[in-house]
């Protein structure tokens, strides 16, 4: 029994040590800037980094020269089917979290386990907005066309496509009347979360970002004045 107790003690200490190391590493790396490039003078495209307190989205203008996002993610796929929105927020995450956990009180142990260990499928969440207001969880940032193209490529590379088009997730789990879900590549895990996806997008576009982030706070720290 003593040997069993000792083994269990080591396991518990190992888990606690891992959690402490994870938290410290995430905090430090998410706040260390990954950007070393100077800001150019041709940054005229307004984008936003927006959080709901847990999950971050990148918000882009729907129409930009040759690209109209409503042709990629049709308004008809939303519940409201309204048109004429000005902005589109997009985020990546675990499909189980997106569809089965609208609020934290709905979280199941099985959903958390599958997500934490990268066993589930992923999805892209697209939300339309008429206006965007900056606050403690939403920050505007201006980029140039090259940066915008980098974001577009990153988003497309994250989508699971069929005949070159995004695959709509057929569900009634939309959060409101102006959003929809699409199949995506990759798997969510404790080392690659929804916020990690956002952070990599920002790095690809030479926008302020951390070296590695799994929580929204580290990402937003680069935009707070």
From TrEMBL:
Xref: InterPro entries: CHP02117 (IPR011727)
**Keywords on record:** Membrane, Transmembrane, Transmembrane helix
Name recorded for this polypeptide: TIGR02117 family protein
Q: Do you know which Pfam families this protein is assigned to?
A: DUF2459 (PF09601)
Per the UniProt record, the lineage of the source organism begins with: Bacteria, Pseudomonadati, Bacteroidota, Sphingobacteriia, Sphingobacteriales
Q: Where are the transmembrane segments?
A: 7-25
């Amino acid at each position: 029994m003593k040997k069993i107790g000792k083994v269990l003690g080591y396991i518990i200490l190992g888990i606690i040590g891992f959690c402490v190391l994870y938290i410290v590493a995430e905090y430090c790396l998410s706040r260390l800037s990954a950007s070393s490039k100077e800001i150019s003078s041709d940054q005229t495209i307004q984008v936003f980094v927006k959080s709901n307190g847990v999950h971050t989205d990148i918000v882009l203008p729907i129409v930009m020269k040759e690209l109209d996002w409503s042709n990629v993610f049709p308004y008809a796929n939303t519940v409201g089917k309204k048109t004429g929105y000005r902005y589109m927020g997009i985020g990546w995450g675990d499909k189980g979290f997106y569809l089965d956990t609208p609020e934290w009180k709905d979280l199941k142990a099985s959903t958390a386990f599958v997500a934490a260990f990268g066993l589930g499928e992923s999805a892209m969440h697209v939300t339309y907005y008429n206006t965007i207001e900056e606050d403690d969880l939403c920050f505007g940032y201006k980029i140039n066309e090259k940066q915008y193209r980098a974001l577009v490529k990153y988003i497309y590379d994250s989508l699971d496509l069929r005949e070159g088009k995004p695959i709509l997730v057929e569900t009634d789990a939309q959060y409101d009347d102006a959003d929809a879900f699409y199949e995506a590549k990759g798997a969510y895990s404790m080392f690659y979360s929804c916020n990690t996806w956002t952070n990599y997008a920002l790095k690809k576009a030479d926008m302020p970002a951390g070296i590695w982030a799994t929580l929204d706070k580290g990402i937003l720290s680069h935009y707070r004045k």
